[in-house]
Amino acid sequence: MAKKLPLKQRYAALTRDVHWEPTYVDSAKVFPHTSFEGIKVHDWSKWEDPFRLTVDAYHKYQAEKDKRLYAVLDGFAQSQGHLTLSDARYLNAMKLFLQGVTPLEYQAHRHFAYLSRHLDGPGPRFAALCQSIDELRHTQTEIHTLSNYNKYYPGFHNWHEMHDRVWYLSVPKSFFDDALAAGPFEFLIAIGFSFEYLLSNLLFVPFMSAASFNGDMPSMTFGFSAQSDESRHMTLGLESIKFLLEQDEGNVPIIQEWIDKWFWRSYRVTALVAAMLDYMLPRKVMSWKESFELYFEQQMLGGLFPDLAYYGIKPPRHVDQAIQEKDLLSHQVYWTLYQFGHAAAFTTTTPEPSEMEWLAQQYPDTFDKYYRPLWDRAQRIADAGGRSFVVGALPQLCQVCQVPMLFTEPGDPTRIAQRSSIFEGERYDFCSDGCQWIFDREPQKYRQAWLPVHQIYQGNCGGPSVPDVLAWYGVQAGDTGEYRGSVEHRNWQTWHAQLTEQVTSVGS
After folding, report:
1. Separation between Cα atoms, residue 283 and residue 90, nearest integer Å
2. What is the DSSP string of 223-246?
């Protein structure tokens, strides 16, 4: 009777041992994409798999998580759970999540599937295969979860087309387009390391806790179901870096530049997350500043980068500027979204008085001084029956991160930061030193950026007027503008009035 293989040998037999060396075709032709970036790999067998999962164990594990998730979804839908949310305003954050994050999951699925064929070593190929399946599962569960809200609330209906077209969604989209246009090793640093460590921690952990706090049990469930996968993805990203650093000392400066670049690119995408945490949640759990200090400053700068220093890796370039902005970022971003709320695929409004007090407590050095006066004035105009600060013009965009020029000079929150570079006789503008450095390093790549404002001016976005552009976006009546008095606000009030009447009649 054959003996059962030990776990480690069984894992090798079902993963790495299915690899074979090509004989009648040159290996460089079978795997043509892992040599042009300058990275040297001498021994693929040195790759250490962070999670030793076979395909059968992996699918069993994921199926169990799906059963728990879909049980929550069914119960929530059958019990009209959407009426137990803290407020309909909360759903604007989930619209932004569906429009901006879910399509990125699918992009990651496609490219990790590509890497599962084109990476030379069997270890990273199998790891990429597992992550590809993870990302597809995340896409599906997020769509299924949020589709329940599409039955009752505007803004959820056209997220996939909006991701490709809407101005503020070009920020996350351009990030992934940039990563997909890079080589395989740079992609692993961009997504497996920078994106997973920075954006996933700052989004999935505090924000999904906030989903629960705001009565959104389905989103909390899919968030924490995905976060267990994200932990594996972060470990894969870190293993990729360590493996490449240990293979050849010539890899160190290449990887350092990638870390510098992708930290800043990831950080600029988190600007939207900052606004979600501080302004788009009726019930607050953790401020952007608190989450940034915990998940970036303490865990990454204080824990991860000291470990990488052993290999010669330094903290990312421009990290000090990111730290300086933690008191300003969310306020600047949401104020811009409020000003251009008529052209967004969600509604915006002024903070409630209790929220203003919370913001003042969280940001004692900046909120009352710089931002409360803006919101007070906006509220006075709203109380008089108007909507203030609606900007009719189109904003200037950063050539690299594609965020409107809303960030301020380091050390001076009253002065908009603007940088520019001349390349082949044309001027390109940037929001920061970080974005300018990225452009100057690869100008041929970033000069091709699809900037929404430029495309509108060129007539490529449905027409010359705001209604024309919104129709091209797929934005419908009720999707956009001021929250107070909107379709979802009126419906929310009507449904809760009916619910109160039902409870009163049953009680009597």
Report:
1. 9
2. HHHHHHHHHHHHHHHHHHHHHHHH
Looking at the structure, give the CATH architecture of the domain made up of residues 31-481: Orthogonal Bundle (1.10)
Q: At what angle do helices 91-100 and 102-118 cross, to 10 degrees?
A: 30
- At residue 470 the predicted structure's pLDDT band, cuts being 50, 70 and 90, is very high
Name which residue leads in pLDDT, 117 or 53: 117
pLDDT tens digits along 15-48 = 777 788 888 998 889 888 988 899 999 998 888 7
- For residue 35, give the amino acid letter: S
Percent of the chain, pLDDT > 90? Answer: 68
Strands 481-482 and 412-416: unpaired
Q: What is the pLDDT of residue 487?
A: 92
* Domain edges within the chain: 31-481
Burial of 268 (0-12, 13-18, 19+ CB in 10 A): buried
For residue 39, give the nearest of 195, 251, 228 by alpha carbon: 251
The candidate with the shortest Cα–Cα distance to 56, out of 15, 21, 104, is: 15
List of residues 6+ apart from 277 with CB closer than 8 A: 206, 207, 210, 284, 286, 287, 288, 291, 330
DSSP output for 405-434: S--EETTEEEEE--EEEEETTEEEEESSHH
Nearest to 101 by CA among 196, 187, 193, 183: 196
pLDDT score at 2: 60
